[in-house]
Amino acid sequence: MSRITVIGGTGYAGSAIVAEAAGRGHEVTAFSRSRPTEPVPGVTYVQGDATDETALSSVVTGADVVVAALAPRGTLAGSFRDVYRTTARLADAAGARLFVVGGFSSLRPAAGAPRFVADLGHAPAEFHDEIRAGAALVIEDLPATPESLNWVFVSPAANFGSYVPGERLGRYRLGDDVAVQPDGGGAISGVDYALGLVDLIEKDSHHRAHVNLGY
Questions:
Q1: Which of 17, 61, 114, 209 has the greatest number of beta carbons closer than 10 A?
Q2: Alpha carbon of 210 to those of 97, 101, 195: distances in Å?
């Protein structure tokens, strides 16, 4: 079993990943600004600010796997990429694998085609900045990290989030950076996304790679 730290472990994706990993017997630490109303038994919850490198380092050090599940909005709107660069550096120093919860717009509709983020006509204007920030992680920031850092960027289908929680179907499809549901109408529930992400952690078959999960 692995020691897994989930940064943003009480958010929509993070809490599902925490529950899935703990349910499989992994040693899980959830780092977030607040504690959950219904903690998962056996999980260590640590409150802290992800912009505080000392606090972040305290939960990354000693981990086998770090899952970054923060959103580029609210208090992180201006510092999101800096926080992820710091997380990547700390994970590399700790020898931990890094899994990043990504977004749909960083994917492509077909091999070699421009990423969806190149044309954001499909998304309301108020979300454009956070979409670009999230996509920049896999387009620019993660590829620029040292080769010693083993990272996997895991994009969900287009319809993914607390507004469409869905239910556990116990299945998913795995693709590379080409969306398995390229028409943008696809979906995946939080629990099935977590199922796929923890499978990726356990199989350890992808390295410095962009993948996506959908039905």
A1: 17
A2: 14, 11, 17
Q: Between the CA of residue 191 and those of 17, 119, 152, what are the distances in Å?
A: 8, 29, 19
Say what the alpha-carbon torsion angle 199, 204, 205, 206 is, to the nearest 10 degrees: 100
Amino acid at 71: A
Q: Does position 184 have pLDDT exceeding 90, yes or no?
A: no
Q: Within 33-173, where are the H helices? A: 53-60, 80-94, 128-136
Question: How far apart (Å, rounded) are the C-alpha atoms in residues 121 and 138?
Answer: 21
- The arithmetic mean of pLDDT across residues 95-123, rounded, is 94
- What CA–CA distance (Å, rounded) separates 62 from 70? 20
Give me the long-range contacts of 122-127 (CB less than 8 A, separation at least 24). 122/184
Q: Which domain holds residue 166?
A: 3-214
Over residues 24-75, the pLDDT tens digits come to 999 999 999 999 999 999 999 999 999 999 999 999 999 999 999 999 988 8
Distances (CA, A) of 142 to 77, 93, 155, 204: 19, 15, 14, 18
| Domain tally, the chain | 1
Q: Which residue matches tokens 């998962």? A: 40
Contact 17, 40 (CB under 8 A): no
